[in-house]
């Protein structure tokens, strides 16, 4: 008998050891992070002591109307509210994983009835058993019970703790995701606000141009009566006046749509956007210090989010691998049990207790566990690619925007010079037209060129301000 028990124990041990054979996870290496350049380009060495991404947005934006819009958006924006709920969901996930580390205790009561066959060992035993002198066991036999039940999976391989650490990393990634949404939201509000101011200024320009065309039309009519101009000149100025008025309505529609776009970001129904357009063309963009590329890893919330998701994915692989190991569970019960409710109060006879320990592991059909492991391993590699892509895109964003800031500044300066020259030429052309020394085509072309230059100058100012906002966001600003 002893030899037989030894064989049973040896077989059981071999089966448990066989279940411990788990595949190895893919070893991943983050080469993109390791090879981040020291500078954004060869000409710029960066400034390690300054980084505009660390500047809080309340200090970066000085327009009180813009600050008010951002504050409203931070309170009401639906996308931000959705993201905050994602954080709450992730937080609940941490609590759920943490709860698995502690025993599960439950209380319950139950009642039932059972009739055993007379010619069975159980039925024969019940028929010959007397609980009290002269009292046989009832038939059918009832069963009434109540008590506490506890179950506890002992975390011998730290699988449950690994799952908890993965849930914590995922929770922290959702927090960084919220910061990224904040950064994007503030950037969108600022960009749309500057576009709205640009449209306001363009509307003023087209209205001024309309008045100019009205005067030119009146002059052409006077010259026609004096035989100094023809009907063709009158019709040309009438057409140009109608065109400028039509453009005015187009800009008004664009203003309405842009206002509603800002209202949508603020989570409210259409209403006028409070703003001041007068100082738009004289507004100077903020100075941006780019710092060094490695600071992106510390400042940009999307990079930190991707890094935490990668950490969570690695921990998920580790937890999935430990599913191949045997689990140790302990079950315990303590309560009262009797075949009649009146006997439940008789102690200690009605007391019942059990304590069971179980060590079990998968042996034959492991396909589900293997599939979960392979899925986790693939997601780990996927998360690495996402992380590398985020770092690369962040670096390229800043590099492109740095170049854009320099080029848009030069573009704005040259457009300013062009506008001044064309404004002066308008006065000259009008004077020559009044004195019949220039024809209407020269006046029209000159006025069109001046209009285009002014409109492009406004667009250049808007791009100049928006580009600085974009690079501020790309350096990790806008969420503090």
Features:
11% strand; 4-stranded antiparallel sheet; 480 residues; 12 helices; elongated; two-stranded antiparallel ribbon; alpha+beta
Helix content: 55-70%
Number of strands: 6
* Tally of helical runs: 12
**pLDDT average, as an integer?**
86
Main-sheet strand order equals 1-4-5-6
Can you tell me the overall shape? Answer: elongated
Proportion of residues in extended strands: 5-15%
Rg over alpha carbons:
39 Å
Ends: how far apart?
74 Å
Low-pLDDT windows of residues: none
Query: What characterizes the major β-sheet?
Result: 4 strands, antiparallel
* Secondary-structure element series: HHHHHEHEEEHHHHEEHH
Structural class comes to: alpha+beta
Q: How would you summarize this macromolecular structure in one to three sentences?
A:
By secondary structure, the protein is of the alpha+beta class.
């Amino acid at each position: 008998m002893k030899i037989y028990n030894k064989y049973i124990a040896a077989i059981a041990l071999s089966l448990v050891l066989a279940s411990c054979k788990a595949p190895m996870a893919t070893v991943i290496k983050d080469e993109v992070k390791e090879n981040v350049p020291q500078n954004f380009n060869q000409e710029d060495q960066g400034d390690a002591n300054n980084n505009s991404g660390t500047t809080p947005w309340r200090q970066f934006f000085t327009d009180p109307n813009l600050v008010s819009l951002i504050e409203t958006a931070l309170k009401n924006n639906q996308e931000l509210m959705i993201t905050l709920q994602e954080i709450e969901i992730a937080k609940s996930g941490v609590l759920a994983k943490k709860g698995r580390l502690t025993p599960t205790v439950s209380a319950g009561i139950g009642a039932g009835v059972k009739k055993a066959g007379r010619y069975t060992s159980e039925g024969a035993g019940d028929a010959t058993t007397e609980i009290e002198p002269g009292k046989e066991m009832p038939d059918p036999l009832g069963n009434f019970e109540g008590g506490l039940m506890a179950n506890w999976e002992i975390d011998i391989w730290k699988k449950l703790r690994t799952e908890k650490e993965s849930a914590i990393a995922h929770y922290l990634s959702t927090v960084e995701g919220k910061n990224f949404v904040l950064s994007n939201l503030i950037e969108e509000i600022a960009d749309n606000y500057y576009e709205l101011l640009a449209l306001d200024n363009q509307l003023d320009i087209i209205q001024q141009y309309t008045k100019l065309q009205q005067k030119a039309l009146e002059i052409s009519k006077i010259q026609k009566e004096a035989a100094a101009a023809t009907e063709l000149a009158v019709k040309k100025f009438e057409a140009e006046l109608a065109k400028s008025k039509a453009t005015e309505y187009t800009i008004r529609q664009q203003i309405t749509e842009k206002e509603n776009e800002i209202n949508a970001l603020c989570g409210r129904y259409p209403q006028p956007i409070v703003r001041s357009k007068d100082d738009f063309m004289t507004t100077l963009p903020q100075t941006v210090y780019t710092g060094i590329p490695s600071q992106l890893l510390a400042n940009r919330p999307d990079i930190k989010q991707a890094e935490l998701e990668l950490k969570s994915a690695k921990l998920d692989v580790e937890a999935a691998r430990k599913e191949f190991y045997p689990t140790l569970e302990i079950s315990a019960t303590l309560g009262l049990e009797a075949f009649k409710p009146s006997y439940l109060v008789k102690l200690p006879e009605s007391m019942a207790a059990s304590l069971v320990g179980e060590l079990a592991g998968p042996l034959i059909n492991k396909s589900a566990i293997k599939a979960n492991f392979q899925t986790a391993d693939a997601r780990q590699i996927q998360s690495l690619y996402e992380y590398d892509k985020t770092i690369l895109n962040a670096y390229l964003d800043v590099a492109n925007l740095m170049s854009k800031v320099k080029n848009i500044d030069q573009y704005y300066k040259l457009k300013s010079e062009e506008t001044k020259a064309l404004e002066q030429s308008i006065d000259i052309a009008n004077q020559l037209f009044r004195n019949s020394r220039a024809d209407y085509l020269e006046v029209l072309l000159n006025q069109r060129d001046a209009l285009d230059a002014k409109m492009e100058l406004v667009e250049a100012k808007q791009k100049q301000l928006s580009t600085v906002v974009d690079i501020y966001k790309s350096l990790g600003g806008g969420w503090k």
